[in-house]
Amino acid sequence: MKEAARRREGLAIARRVLPALVVILAGVGAAQAEIVRLKNGGTIACDTIEDRGIDLVLHVGKMTIVVPKGEVDRVDKTAPAPGSAAAPTAPSGSSAPKGAPATAATPRSPVATGAAPAIGTAPSDDPAADAARLDDLRRRLAGPPVARDENRRQIVALLDRMGERSLLARQPDEARRRFEEALAWEPADLRARRGQAASLLMLDRTPEARVALDRALLDTPADADLNYLLGETLERQGRTTDAITALEKSYAAHPTPAVRDRIDTLRRQNGIDGDYRRAEAARFVLSYDGSRTSPDLEAEILAYLEGQFPELALEYDYTPPESIAVILYPEKEFYDATQTGPDVAGLYDGKVRVPIGGLKRLDTQAREVLRHELAHAFITGKSRGLAPRWLQEGLAQWAEGKRPMAGSETGLARAYKDAPDRWPGAFSYETALSFTAWLMAQHGASALNDVLAAMGRGAPAEQAVKDVLRVSLPDLKTAWGDELVRQHLP
After folding, report:
1. How high does pLDDT run on average in the chain?
2. C-beta neighbour count of 255 within 10 angstroms
3. From the candidate CATH numbers 2.30.29, 3.40.1710, 3.40.30, 3.30.1330, the one assigned to the domain spanning 1-31+88-108+257-384
4. Which of 102, 306, 414, 478 is deepest in the core (most CB within 10 A)?
5. Structure confidence at residue 19 as a pLDDT band (50, 70, 90)
6. Taking residues 118-124, what's their average pLDDT?
7. Taking the CB of residue 93, how many other CB atoms lie within 10 A of it?
8. Secondary structure letter of residue 279 according to DSSP
9. Strand, helix or coil at 347?
């Protein structure tokens, strides 16, 4: 470690796969459908209709339904379903700015073919309406056999959409339940298979996600999205070479710059740390350059991390469900692997990455950096990656032992007094620490943990703050500025 003070930079993000999950599952509905309305009150949405005398032959995707004309009331055309436009474009994968949340490389959004409107009603983005429709569809299955297969197919399509909505809302457990019910109705449903694996990854249930993906890939081995998810799953499991192979399959099926960037990043990092020695403990997997890191230092760092884990688990009232990967680099290799600047002293991007230079023993600065980056793992896990940068860095600095300095607080007070309408302005580590410390003093550390937990349930940052602290975030910032002026300016 360099002795000069440097930023304890933490790119604290959700697992790289998380931004991808909510994009690859954004399926679209059928562009046009014909609605066959039955005399018994049921309806069947289909792609095309053939008139065969006494029967109508309905084509729904690859499925054919024969309905006697005597059971048909009328046939209507329907406009494209809401959401049937092209799915959103995935964000480009790139190195994040210092301290900013990173975005994942993301493959294209697949089209969910044959997702016609559900029987009985028009499509809806209202969760309550969808739940009512689901109940209605289940009841219809107990009725006459006509359209039973179509009802079942529409149940699966509806469950898929409900699961995708839950995943977009960062409610992965609810999403998992929806997708698994869809698979109970149709075990081969590709949309539900993707969603199930995505939900399990968001829940950090990586081994289960791996099993689900392996099973799905037996039937659709070239699917770009399944291979992308498999790549991220393998990367979590420390199998970077295999992860690159899976991502290359995803890219071959559907090439995008984002996936290409992700592959290049993993290749660059694996070329640097792929041959590092590994040491495992109860809660950590430590990788290090054995030729330049002594076994004594490796053991000391691992022991320190194991000692910090229960303290941080108590501090955040949260226990990461999986082992945390920690990589120790020589100075140059750290910057080559992370593509960060020389003022960065550590980084968290789903793995704790730290440059140790010529360190022989674990000194105070190294302990602070390790605890700071380890705190990001807890904050990210509890909030499911939704904690904003100011809260991430404020809490991580607090965890490493930093406290606001009087000189810094005075400077912040002057900045607020001079321009309260622009307060607090651009991000800085000083403002993040000061605001977080003030919130702790006013509301307590447990309240901030409740804010993180609310984010983990899917609430956006400002909503989580307002729901827990009962004050809006802008009003809190104004109150903090007023307090700074009161305490530090004459």
Report:
1. 81
2. 13
3. 3.40.30
4. 102
5. very low
6. 34
7. 24
8. E
9. strand
